[in-house]
């Protein structure tokens, strides 16, 4: 798996965001070794679409999200937003383009400055960009706060710690919305929340997406959540792309052994579905400092063969917008 | 060397956070009230020393007939001489108040200067990291490895022998300025290290990342996102630091490296009267000692309260 | 290993900068260093010129510094005109006293503060803890000049338990007399340290005792003593170790006051005398020795971290 | 492991009678656990499910007696094999901890002592409780590491926690918990810090060990999916009280409490088509210092009426293996009429329910 290749990309002009051969590395101390966080992945997001990025810890999904925002700048590859190349942009051009893409983070408490009033936090983007008069800014902020279900009056007099986790996440969303972005990158936005609150936030995201015509990149480790909110899902493993498919298709007919394993591992809230031991994958994710050769999943793959160690699989089409990077996919093109 | 970190609690686990919210068994704010009132009174006396009749009415340097009258000094506190007088017959109370003026000004000026310089350097080192951080950390190490007395010798002993120093707006005694420079230099490194460690942890927070994602400039992030979160800790450190500096000034003055004329600080007064201790001159030592101790204690109490108010872990300076 | 080498190099740089700055500052502050070096007596013009040549005072600072370094390596730092002895002899006689003094006060402070802090943290907010909290607060606020004056007055002048004017006696010559001589200065320095150490260790221990692995240790059914000493104490030592290193400089600085009051002929007193008599060579040598001591203890504590914490060892093995 | 005493294989192991755990804080008394009663048989596993702040962790720690003494007020009885644990005192509890009952914590990184080798951490309870000598304890520790399926166990004995992967750390923690052969194992969110593929392995491991050793297990979690496959019974907690308790199959097939129902409906499910509207529970859990009078779920419950807000429903047994605390449970007339109303107004979709 762990494939490279761009067979799954849509024609150039169609996508709002087009990421090609993205490469992000982090140095390990001063050893000269590198963490290969993301190694040559490509994907695109169509306007108005929700793309889900899913995978376990260390697969590079969050790194990918941040790399799109150029936080930090990736070590290689290209990221085109609306036809404009982001990686070569610098200074003012980059700053301006950033208003079009916004980000929501995992920890709702830590992503809000504890010492500022909520209204100020949401207004900060407008202040940075000097948009509108103070009255116009306040009006805009209150509108957005209303839209995410936060009482503007309370926001004006309260600091983040006076709100619950779910409400803080709403405030984060309001801050992201206030500049009228085209795209929002949601980095594990619900994993710190309780299930009942998680449902509120997921529903809110769906509503806002429809209301403001947003395009979403939704990053999470929980496949059930990702599947629910996304139109298409990309499964990642150890810095590589495994499988890209329409979300229902991915669940009904997974083609990559890793996707299958992931689906089997998710605990189903139904005692009749009893998972059996032989469906379990053995071992744990290898170190991204020295990843396995060939297909990166081969060390844990139940059907790995010699070829998987020697040769890195490329993404191949299975039809119906379904792509897989595996030498021995669980199903072939129809 | 790793740094002393004041930990800003992020998300304590539920049980400890519950238990920590239990009020301390004594809800004793008495100490704080007492400390603040003491400092207020002392500051009031020091600021208005030249105007207050009960400070001014005593001749601090008796001459002529009065000096002769006082030659056989009693030394004991009396209704006339509240703190007694020393072997030259000088009134210890008036001298102590004038000394408070000097001591407090020196302490305050040094801690403010050190906080501004050290805070700025620490913030830059913690935020930009890399080479900047490495160079600064060597500078901090150098400052820490400097013996205080050698620093005092160089700055006070030679550069500021005496006379007036004209700094445009200010005009002040050169020696006075020298002491402030020494104390500032001594406290820059420890303060900068505390601020650096804090900044380091704060700049990992997601709201800083969020601000960068919004296109905020580094300057804006430092001023708007990081500085406000540093302030409570710096505020607390300012008080405990002030206490430490008063002790340090006491040591320098004791050794003769601080202002002496026309009025010394408490440390020098203690050293001056020390030789007289056995000959009934104890009061002239006792009162400066008590004032110095109480002042240091009061600042420590206030600093501790501020730290607890903002839930900051104890820091060493 | 790479980490150690790097750290060592950094400290060498620190040492060089400190000594260089000291030299330049001291000599630049003097109107004529050569005349100061010649001493107040027999300062004929010829003698001054001779000294200027001998110490290369007519050369640029970097060159002067190079010669000074050479002299440092060969341990031949010239003669003090005012104290009438070679710098090597003076420093060699005085430095051990101060180092012993520092060592005693740290050992004494640690010996007292460890059990006190552990017990206070174990019985948090109990009567003992509250008493200790108040006492250490007062002790932290007690300037050592006051403490020294009080100790001196009561123990030496009034009750005559300890000598006021201490003389230099080595521990191997007469341990009893030696400890009697250094007792008051040691206590002067140790009181503040005990207070700082207790507060620091207690607060760290209280934090550690709330951490998950302590609950885990309790769930294993271990005794409180075992949890405190085996599990909690070790992970709470880091701030204390940092503090010991940071305080070391302060102790050597504080030694000047203590030695001055109790007339203990250590390096602090030597430095004080040298400063008063503008004895540049001695001041430079003392400053160098001071910097060296601070640098070495920093390095030692840094290494000690790795001994205590395998995670640091691990990270350093990588870096 | 050799059990230190001959233990009966069946019967009731644990019985809670109206257990209350309150904390006195600056703002008032937090009623973290407020009147919980249930029994647990030997060799059975019980899942305690609840959202954060529901009191599930504090309940588990109250049973074990592992709460800090300061500010904690505990009422009610905890009977362990017929013995009231409250009467034991701290010294007596120490003999229980590790030997009779032990615990696995959420985050293996912070719950293992970072400065102590794995082998030492496992052999510590062996040496303290079973008086083993060094060699014997080390051999037993090795055996335990093999039992929990850690690769290269000899090597691991001399490693520190940070040198192991997350899954291995959790396995090591399980080995410590199993060391003295406990009768009752608490697992407090044992897999929350782990990846899904590893989570499955760890849950299987706990399950296998329970069977092999005939232990009782109390599995505390927020994830209904985790308990579904791995416990015999489930207790659903809300705001410090038990909302519903039933055998696992019964609970999922025939849930009665509206909170349980809401919880199940708010989870996105893989077998639903994407973009399925989730049923969000409005509002948020109550403040446990001033909990609502009456049913604690009433302020958020779509079926609540005046009685619910005034009178506390008791936990009552509907059948041998099912009890719940609700005035208008799922399937009751009021529930039915309200449900129809919600569907007709579009708040709920007719297909929103779960098969």
TrEMBL record, chain A:
Task: Give all residue intervals belonging to the ABC transporter domain.
Answer: 17-263
Q: Which PROSITE patterns match?
A: ABC_TRANSPORTER_1 (PS00211), ABC_TRANSPORTER_2 (PS50893)
Q: Name one Pfam family in it.
A: ABC_tran
Listed under GO biological process in this entry are: peptide transport; transmembrane transport
Q: ATP-binding as a keyword? A: yes
Q: What SMART domains is this protein classified in?
A: AAA
Q: What InterPro entries is this protein classified in?
A: AAA+_ATPase, ABC_transp_ATP-bind, ABC_transporter-like_ATP-bd, ABC_transporter-like_CS, Oligopep_ABC_C, P-loop_NTPase
CDD domains documented for this protein: ABC_NikE_OppD_transporters
> A single GO molecular function, which one?
ATP hydrolysis activity
Give the record's family classification.
Belongs to the ABC transporter superfamily.
Could you tell me what this protein is called? Unannotated protein
Source species: freshwater metagenome
What taxonomic classification does the UniProt entry list for its organism? unclassified sequences, metagenomes, ecological metagenomes
TrEMBL record, chain B:
Q: Enumerate the transmembrane spans.
A: 30-52, 106-128, 135-156, 176-195, 230-263, 283-303
Record key words, sorted: Cell membrane, Membrane, Transmembrane, Transmembrane helix, Transport
Q: Which CDD domains match?
A: TM_PBP2
Its main subcellular localisation, reduced to a broad class, is membrane
User: Where is it located?
Assistant: Cell membrane
One Gene Ontology BP term is: transmembrane transport
Asked if Membrane is a keyword of the record, the answer is yes
A single cellular component GO annotation: plasma membrane
Q: How does it sit in the membrane?
A: Multi-pass membrane protein
Q: Where is the ABC transmembrane type-1 domain?
A: 100-303
The protein's name is Unannotated protein
Give the source species: freshwater metagenome
Automatic annotation (TrEMBL), chain C:
Q: Name its GO BP terms in alphabetical order.
A: transmembrane transport
Species name? freshwater metagenome
Q: Which Pfam families match?
A: BPD_transp_1, BPD_transp_1_N
Record-level GO cellular component terms = plasma membrane
Which Gene3D superfamilies does the protein's record reference?
Answer: MetI-like
Asked if the Swiss-Prot or TrEMBL record annotates the protein with the keyword Cell membrane, the reply is: yes
Alphabetical UniProt keywords:
Cell membrane, Membrane, Transmembrane, Transmembrane helix, Transport
| The protein, known as | Unannotated protein
Ranges for domain ABC transmembrane type-1 = 95-305
* SUPFAM superfamilies on file: MetI-like (SSF161098)
PROSITE patterns to which the protein is assigned, alphabetical: ABC_TM1
From TrEMBL, chain D:
The keyword ATP-binding belongs to this UniProt entry's keyword annotation: yes
Q: Does the keyword Transport apply?
A: yes
Record domain ABC transporter: where:
14-264
Question: Per UniProt, which keywords does this protein have?
Answer: ATP-binding, Cell membrane, Membrane, Nucleotide-binding, Transport
Its lineage opens with: unclassified sequences, metagenomes, ecological metagenomes
User: What is the name of the protein in this document?
Assistant: Unannotated protein
Q: Which Gene3D superfamilies match?
A: P-loop containing nucleotide triphosphate hydrolases (3.40.50.300)
Name the Gene Ontology biological process terms. Answer: peptide transport
Q: Where found, per UniProt? A: Cell membrane
Membrane topology designation: Peripheral membrane protein
A single GO cellular-component term from the record reads:
plasma membrane
Q: Which GO terms describe its molecular function?
A: ATP binding; ATP hydrolysis activity
Per the record, the major location class is: membrane
| PANTHER family per UniProt | DIPEPTIDE TRANSPORT ATP-BINDING PROTEIN DPPD, OLIGOPEPTIDE TRANSPORT ATP-BINDING PROTEIN APPD
CDD domains with a match to the protein in the record: ABC_NikE_OppD_transporters
């Amino acid at each position: 798996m762990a494939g490279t290749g761009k067979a799954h990309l849509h024609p150039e002009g169609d996508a709002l965001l087009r990421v090609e051969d993205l490469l992000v590395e982090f140095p390990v101390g001063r050893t000269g070794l590198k963490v290969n966080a993301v190694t040559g992945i490509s994907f695109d997001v169509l306007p108005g679409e929700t793309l889900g990025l899913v995978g376990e810890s260390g697969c590079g999904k969050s790194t990918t999200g941040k790399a799109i925002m150029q936080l930090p700048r990736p070590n290689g590859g290209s990221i085109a937003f609306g036809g404009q190349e982001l990686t070569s942009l610098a200074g003012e051009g980059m700053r301006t383009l950033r208003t079009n893409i916004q980000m929501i983070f995992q920890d709702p408490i830590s992503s809000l400055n504890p010492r500022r009033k909520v209204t100020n936090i949401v207004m900060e983007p407008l202040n940075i960009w000097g948009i509108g008069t103070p009255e116009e800014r306040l009006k805009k902020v209150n509108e957005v706060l209303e839209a995410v279900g936060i009482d503007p009056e309370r926001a004006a007099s309260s600091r983040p710690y006076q709100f619950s986790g779910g409400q803080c996440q709403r405030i984060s969303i309001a801050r992201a919305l206030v500049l009228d972005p085209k795209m929002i990158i949601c980095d594990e936005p619900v994993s710190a929340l309780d299930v009942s609150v998680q449902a509120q936030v997921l529903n809110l995201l769906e509503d806002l997406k429809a209301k403001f015509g947003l395009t979403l990149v939704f990053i999470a480790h929980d496949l059930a959540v990702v599947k629910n909110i996304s139109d298409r899902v990309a499964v990642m493993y150890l810095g590589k792309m495994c499988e890209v498919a329409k979300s229902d298709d991915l669940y009904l007919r997974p083609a990559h052994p890793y996707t299958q394993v992931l689906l089997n591992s998710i605990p189903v809230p139904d005692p009749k579905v009893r998972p059996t031991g032989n469906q379990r994958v053995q071992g744990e994710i290898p170190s991204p400092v020295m990843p396995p050769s060939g297909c990166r999943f081969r060390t844990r793959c139940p059907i790995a063969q010699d070829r998987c160690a020697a040769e890195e699989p490329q993404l191949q089409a299975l039809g119906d917008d379904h792509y897989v990077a595996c030498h021995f996919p669980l199903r072939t093109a129809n | 060397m790793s740094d002393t970190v004041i930990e800003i609690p992020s998300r304590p686990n539920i049980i400890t956070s519950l238990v920590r919210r239990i009020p301390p068994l004594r809800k004793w704010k008495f100490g704080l009230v007492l400390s603040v009132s003491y400092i207020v009174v002392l500051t009031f006396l020091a600021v208005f020393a030249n105007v207050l009749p009960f400070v001014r009415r005593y001749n601090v340097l008796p001459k002529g007939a009065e000096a002769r009258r006082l030659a056989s000094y009693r030394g004991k506190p009396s209704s006339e001489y509240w703190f007694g007088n020393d072997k030259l017959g000088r009134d210890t109370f008036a001298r102590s108040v004038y000394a408070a003026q000097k001591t407090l000004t020196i302490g305050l000026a040094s801690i403010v200067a050190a906080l501004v310089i050290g805070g700025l350097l620490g913030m830059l080192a913690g935020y930009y990291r890399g080479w900047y951080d490495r160079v600064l950390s060597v500078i901090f190490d150098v400052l820490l490895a400097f013996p205080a007395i050698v620093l005092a010798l160089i700055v006070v002993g030679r550069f500021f022998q005496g006379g007036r120093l004209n700094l445009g707006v200010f005009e002040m005694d050169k020696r006075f300025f020298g002491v402030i420079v020494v104390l500032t230099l001594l406290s820059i490194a420890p303060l900068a290290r505390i601020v650096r460690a804090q900044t380091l942890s704060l700049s990992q927070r997601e709201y800083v990342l969020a601000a960068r994602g919004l296109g905020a400039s580094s300057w804006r992030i430092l001023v708007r996102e990081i500085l406000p979160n540093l302030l409570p800790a710096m505020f607390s450190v300012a008080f405990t630091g002030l206490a430490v500096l008063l002790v340090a000034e006491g040591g320098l003055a004791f050794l003769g490296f601080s202002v002496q004329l026309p009025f010394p600080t408490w440390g020098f007064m203690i050293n001056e009267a020390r030789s007289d201790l056995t000959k009934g001159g104890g009061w002239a030592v006792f009162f400066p000692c008590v004032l110095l101790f109480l002042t240091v204690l009061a600042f420590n109490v206030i600093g501790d309260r501020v730290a607890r108010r903002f839930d900051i872990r104890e820091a060493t300076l | 290993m790479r980490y150690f080498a790097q750290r060592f190099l950094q400290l060498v740089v620190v040492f060089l900068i400190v000594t260089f700055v000291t030299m330049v500052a001291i000599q630049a502050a003097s109107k004529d260093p050569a005349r100061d070096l010649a001493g107040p007596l027999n300062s004929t013009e010829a003698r001054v010129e001779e000294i200027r040549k001998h110490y290369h005072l007519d050369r640029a600072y970097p060159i002067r510094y190079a010669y000074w370094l050479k002299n440092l390596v060969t341990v031949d730092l010239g003669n003090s005109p005012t104290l009438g002895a070679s710098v090597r002899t003076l420093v060699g006689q005085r430095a051990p006293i101060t180092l012993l003094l520092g060592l005693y006060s740290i050992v004494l402070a640690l010996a007292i503060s460890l059990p006190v802090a552990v017990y206070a943290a174990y019985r948090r907010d109990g009567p003992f803890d509250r008493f200790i909290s108040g006492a250490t607060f007062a002790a932290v606020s007690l300037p050592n000049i006051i403490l020294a004056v009080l100790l001196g007055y009561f123990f030496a002048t009034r009750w005559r338990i300890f000598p006021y004017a201490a003389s230099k006696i080595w521990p191997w010559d007469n341990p009893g007399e030696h400890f009697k001589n250094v007792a008051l200065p040691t206590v002067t320095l140790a009181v503040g340290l005990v207070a700082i150490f207790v507060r620091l260790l207690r607060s760290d221990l209280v934090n550690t005792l709330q951490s998950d692995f302590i609950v885990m240790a309790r769930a294993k059914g271990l005794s409180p003593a075992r949890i405190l000493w085996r599990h909690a104490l070790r992970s709470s030592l880091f701030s204390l170790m940092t503090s010991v290193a940071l305080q070391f400089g302060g102790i050597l600085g504080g030694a000047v006051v203590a030695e001055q009051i109790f007339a203990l002929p250590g390096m602090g007193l030597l430095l004080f005398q040298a400063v008063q008599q503008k004895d540049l060579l001695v001041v430079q040598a003392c400053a160098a020795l001071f910097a060296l001591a601070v640098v070495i203890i920093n390095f030692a504590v840094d290494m000690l971290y790795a001994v205590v914490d395998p995670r640091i060892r691990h990270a350093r093995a990588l870096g | 492991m050799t059990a230190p005493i001959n233990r009966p294989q069946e019967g009731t192991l644990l019985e809670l009678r109206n257990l209350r755990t309150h904390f006195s804080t600056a703002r008032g008394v937090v009623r973290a656990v407020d009147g919980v009663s249930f029994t647990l048989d030997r060799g059975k596993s019980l899942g305690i499910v609840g959202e954060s702040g529901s009191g599930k962790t504090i309940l588990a720690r109250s049973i074990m007696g592992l709460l800090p003494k300061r500010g904690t007020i505990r009422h009610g009885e905890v009977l362990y094999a017929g013995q009231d644990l409250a009467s034991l005192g701290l010294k007596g509890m120490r003999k229980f901890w590790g030997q009779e009952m032990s615990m696995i914590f959420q985050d293996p990184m912070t719950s293992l002592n970072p400065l102590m080798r794995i082998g030492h951490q496992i052999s510590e309870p062996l040496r303290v409780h079973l008086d083993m000598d060094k060699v014997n304890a080390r051999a037993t520790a090795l055996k335990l590491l093999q039992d929990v399926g850690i690769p290269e166990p000899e090597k691991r004995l001399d490693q520190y926690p940070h040198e192991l992967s997350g899954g291995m750390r959790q396995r090591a923690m399980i080995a410590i918990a199993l060391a003295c052969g406990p009768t009752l194992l608490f697992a407090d969110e044992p897999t929350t810090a782990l990846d899904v593929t590893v989570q499955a392995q760890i849950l299987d491991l706990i399950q296998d060990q329970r069977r092999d050793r005939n232990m009782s297990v109390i599995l505390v979690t927020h994830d209904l999916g985790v308990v579904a496959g791995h416990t015999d019974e489930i207790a659903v907690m809300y705001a410090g009280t038990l909302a519903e308790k039933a055998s696992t199959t019964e609970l999922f097939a025939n849930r009665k409490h509206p909170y349980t129902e809401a919880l199940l409906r708010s989870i996105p499910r893989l077998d639903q088509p994407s973009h399925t509207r989730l049923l969000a529970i409005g509002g948020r859990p109550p403040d446990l210092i001033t909990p609502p009078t009456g049913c604690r779920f009433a302020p958020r419950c779509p079926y609540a009426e005046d009685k619910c807000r005034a009178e506390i429903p008791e936990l009552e047994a509907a059948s041998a293996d099912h009890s719940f605390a609700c005035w208008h449970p799922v399937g009751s007339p009021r529930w039915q009429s309200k449900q129809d109303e919600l569907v007709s107004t579009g708040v709920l979709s007719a297909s929103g329910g779960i098969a």
